[in-house]
Amino acid sequence: MKVSAPKTVNIHETALAATGVARHIHPIAPTAWAAPVLWLTGLSGAGKSTLAIGASRLLERRGFRTIVIDGDALRAGLSKDLGFSAEDRAESVRRASEVAALCSRAGITTFVALVSPFEIDRANARAAVGGLFHEVYVDTDYATCRARDPKGLYKLAEQGKIRNFTGLDSPYEAPAHPDLVVSTMSEDPAASILKLATYAMHASLHSPLESLPAASA
Amino acid sequence: MKVSAPKTVNIHETALAATGVARHIHPIAPTAWAAPVLWLTGLSGAGKSTLAIGASRLLERRGFRTIVIDGDALRAGLSKDLGFSAEDRAESVRRASEVAALCSRAGITTFVALVSPFEIDRANARAAVGGLFHEVYVDTDYATCRARDPKGLYKLAEQGKIRNFTGLDSPYEAPAHPDLVVSTMSEDPAASILKLATYAMHASLHSPLESLPAASA
What letter does residue A140 receive in the DSSP assignment? Predict the structure, then answer.
């Protein structure tokens, strides 16, 4: 586990555990079900945020409650104290996974769009979220992302102005067994969005925390 | 500001700023409005989580999308690397405020139930969330919380088994100008919950990011 060790001995937590106050670990699912987490991984420029936003909108119009948590939003807020070293990426992924777990348990279909290049970090995220975690591999190759370069990052990285850039001087470990693969190279973006939204809807009907209603005569 | 300094120079962020990629800072409000954040502060055992959960349920039944983020859930996940020193409390409050900001921008009425004893940390949280931040003071005094002691923490603290315990060997700075005060000493809990839910509904109609619809003849 790459999870950071506690900074201080947390006596409260021990006390909490002793008194059995686990009621908030799976807190407060006001909708009485927990929603899936769609974890989109892929290179910068692969189309993760675009697909997540598109699928989120499709689902919202159909009454689903959704949220999109993407790398830029995290870097601007929750993870703004973190850089791009392997250790900091691990912590950034950990925080994203904990936010996703909170939202999921509140019945919010959660799209996380984050490069998250390391298999171990994604495995830890899956462990934090539980059975509702779905790994979505946005399979867009380096050459395609580099040609798109929507934020100008590839240019800066190849000029040596950005270090630890995924795909260049920092590795991307593609998922070995993703739950879903979308390719923005071979598919129309609208088709990828529909595929993702369809998958998310399907996943939402298989919440492990909810039993099926009994059929009535 | 008690916000941590970046651990590494974030060249990506600089590059992002240069290319104007601010689109995700206020991302993705699929409901096209941002929901209020109700930030409940008060001593341990004051009733913060109980009131937040109660108000959340009332709102959910009326079609609002809500989430409750409380101290126990944070300590079990997102902030499990943090202790109870002033510095760690500041970071825990910062993370909670960033999660609240993300949820708020996704149209989710967000209840944060966190001791958050220091005025400066709550001021930083207000700054992170913006105009949708509402400080709710759950005004329950030490003697009452100590008598309730639902988690057995007061007993442990007075035995010296917990340090930095708010109200005992760590101060609680009551809000000077809270947006709402609820007292679980003088009010019936149901009345406090109704008061909080009413306030939250009212706040939701005053989202600074939304203009009022034009009246039609």
Answer: -
